[in-house]
Amino acid sequence: MKKTPLYDKHVALEAKMVPFAGYEMPVSYTNISEEHEAVRDNVGVFDVSHMGEFIVRGKEALDLVQSISSNNAAKLNPGDAQYSCIPNDQGGIVDDMIVYRLFDDQCSEGEMAFMLVVNGSNIDKDWSWIEKKAADFDTRLINISDHTGLIAVQGPMAIDILNKYCEEDLCDVAFYHFIKTTFAGCENVVVSNTGYTGSGGMEIYATNHDIIKIWDLLMSENSDITPCGLGARDTLRLEMGYCLYGNDITDETSPIEAGLSWIVKTKKGASFPSLETFQNQRSEGVSKKLMGFVLDGKRVPRKDYKIFDQGENEIGYVTSGTMSPSLDQPIGMGYIKTEFAKEGNTVLIEFRNKKLPAITKRPPFVTIEK
Hints:
By secondary structure, the protein is of the alpha+beta class. Helix content is 20%, strand content 34%. Among the domains are: 2-49 and 147-239, Gyrase A, domain 2; 287-370, Beta Barrel (Elongation Factor Tu (Ef-tu), domain 3), CATH 2.40.30. The protein has 8 helices and 20 strands. Helix 2 crosses helix 7. The longest helix has 14 residues, at 208-221.
């Protein structure tokens, strides 16, 4: 198993470590509910250094990104970020990603540069896919994943704390924008506002050496910051209805089925895999859709549990489920036949030898005050 640059910090804090995406990662430090509530009410910090980062630079960098991305990267200015997915040739998703249009200070005339941030479990798969596509373009592809550390400082108090260490006012960094700055005395740090918790905050990209320095400084000088693990990361994103690759989106699910039509720009003027498939799904509809649901009681729906209609006909399957710390109620998401994917329907979820009722709901499951 690989270790992030912050592995020794997690061990020193007596975190419960588990294998995840090929890395030894902290699942929790105290308990998931406490860490979850810290992010919703105050501030928490996550080590997400397992994520992958690829640099695309060159005269045809934009053309390459357009050829692999479902979204329209041509709309990005330096300092902009964009959520997107990498479609495969069968209408599914190789991975979801965030595309960063980098600043032009390190580009030659006529060049552009992008950073693609991908899921840690898919680094090798994504690199192979993009590398094959890059052969047709005048561009350079660089994998900086092993040299890059990443922490996410999330919660309503996050920016107040981070501003103490930043040369620029992070209040000016809008959602899905970023800056390159000096942070905590470390140069060339990327600070972005693309959080996956719904509670605000920033992500900090730095070298492995610098991310340790930044972590130590934040943790030693700010007693309000709670270290958080994968468990809280999952409950937070699920309360917002955000998709997790490998569960809610996969090589076999289309972004249209997953409710991600807004990142599929079929009219952007550039071809990408499964473009025609997505056009047809838009015009003809899809047979299944990703839908949220809530249950009473304490039984938590788990991945691959079957979903039935009230006549006990099988209509779908669960992709994610958890006990919502904010609601104290089981919530989940799953694919169900389109005719049942409406708000307020009653469906049945199979728990071994029982089928328990659930009410369909379009995420988010909670409303976060801004």
